Structure formats: C-alpha cells, structure tokens
Amino acid sequence: MPLRVQILMYDGVEEQDAIGPRDVLGHAVQAGVQVETTLVRPSAPGEVTCFFGTKVTVPTAWDPTDTDVLIVPGGGDQLIHDPDVHRNLVRAQEAGVVIAGVCTGVMVLSAAGLTKGRPCTTHHLAKPELASQGGKVIDARVVDDGNLVTAGGVTSGIDLALWLLTRACGASVALGVESIMEYEQRGVVWRSS
C-alpha cells in the first residue's frame, strides 16, 4: 500500500513550502517508491493564488482522515483564522494522520492547538510567537514528535519530505532522491525519544 500524502493548498500559500515537498515525493515515485501525493483545498477543488502570484489548480477537496500524512505549508494568514480548518486538523490527528508543518504553516497547527506543550519548530522569525503559544521550540531544521513533524524555514519543506521518506521507507530511499535532486539534507533532525 502506498504512503498517502496530502499537501494543503490555499490562497497565499508560499510556493516553495508546498512545491518543495511535492518535488521530493514526485522524485521518489519516479525512483519506484510507492507514494501517492495529492494537492488538496480545505473546501472544494479549484484554483489557488500562491504568495508570489503563481496560480495552481488543486484537483481535490481535503478529506482530513483520508491520508497517512498531511503537509501544511506556510504563507499567508488565511488558515490561522479558520476554525473549520483547525477542527479538521485535530480530527485528522485523532484519526491517526501524521500532521506536518512547513515554515509558518506550523503557526496554523499552533492555532489549532496541536503544538501546545510539544517539541516543534518554525521559521526563525516566528519562533518567539510559537513559544508564546505554548510550543516547546527546538532549534532544529526538522522536529519529529511522532504524529507531529515540523520544519523551520521556507526551503525546509524539502528536508521535511526527505525525512518523511526516511521515516517511512528508509534512509537509502531518501539518499536516492537526494542524489536525483542533487541536494543534500541540511540541518538537524531532532526526534523525540
């Protein structure tokens, strides 16, 4: 059975936060790894306008419990103030979905209460706010706390996706994708014991 990954898209999403993980997972599929990646929108299929104006057609509505991993990219504030999204994030995690946040997407997870009292990270400029909201901020590129995986910084989505591949499929798979992309994971992956 393939690893099912959803990437939550919305108006204002930062292009690199979403496309970096999508690219990593796409290269994994090209290398023969069974990963199924779907771009999803909170309400219904349609077009989103990303932070820098890129238009992306999103084919699928988000079903919070119909995936193994949900990646929430950063960008604008839209999802931070959306109580329906917050409820669905909690619902997804309660159903066993691994919730992963990239950059300021972690602040959406914080608004939903998912980071309170838990090890996590985000973009360096948002770390004080994440800590003030109850997150136990760790100075690492990727923080893995089981069903909550967070990554700090715009390009950290690439490292997050490589870590998710390592976790699900083994280090050799992630190293193979790194080789294809001519990219080396950067920073520290912090794991809870």
Topology:
Elements: E1 3-8, H1 15-30, E2 35-41, E3 46-49, E4 55-58, E5 60-61, E6 69-72, H2 83-94, E7 98-102, H3 105-111, E8 119-120, H4 127-132, E9 136-137, E10 142-144, E11 148-151, H5 156-169, H6 171-181, E12 189-191
Helix pairs in contact: 1-5, 5-6
Overall description:
- There is one protein chain.
- The protein is of the alpha/beta class and 193 residues long.
- The protein has a single domain (3-191), classed as Rossmann fold (3-Layer(aba) Sandwich).
- The protein has six helices and twelve strands.
- The chain has helices at 15-30, 83-94, 105-111, 127-132, 156-169, 171-181, and strands at 3-8, 35-41, 46-49, 55-58, 60-61, 69-72, 98-102, 119-120, 136-137, 142-144, 148-151, 189-191.
- The strands form three sheets. An eight-stranded mixed β-sheet has the order 5-2-1-6-7-11-10-12, sandwiched between helices. Strands 3-4 form a two-stranded antiparallel sheet. It has a two-stranded parallel ribbon with strand order 8-9.
- Helix 1 (15-30) packs parallel to helix 5 (156-169) and helix 5 runs antiparallel to helix 6.
- The longest helix is centred in the N-terminal third of the chain and has 16 residues, at 15-30.
- It is globular and about 40 Å long.
- The mean pLDDT is 96.
Write a concise keyword list for the protein shown above.
193 residues, Rossmann fold, two-stranded antiparallel sheet, 6 helices, 12 strands, 24% strand
Oligomer: single chain
Side by side, the strands of the main sheet go 5-2-1-6-7-11-10-12
Secondary structure tally, helices: 6
Round the Cα radius of gyration to an integer and report it: 15 Å
Fraction of residues in H or I helices: 25-40%
What does the average pLDDT come to? 96
Q: How many β-strands, per DSSP?
A: 12
What would you call the shape? Answer: globular
Total number of distinct structural domains = 1
CATH superfamily: Class I glutamine amidotransferase (GATase) domain
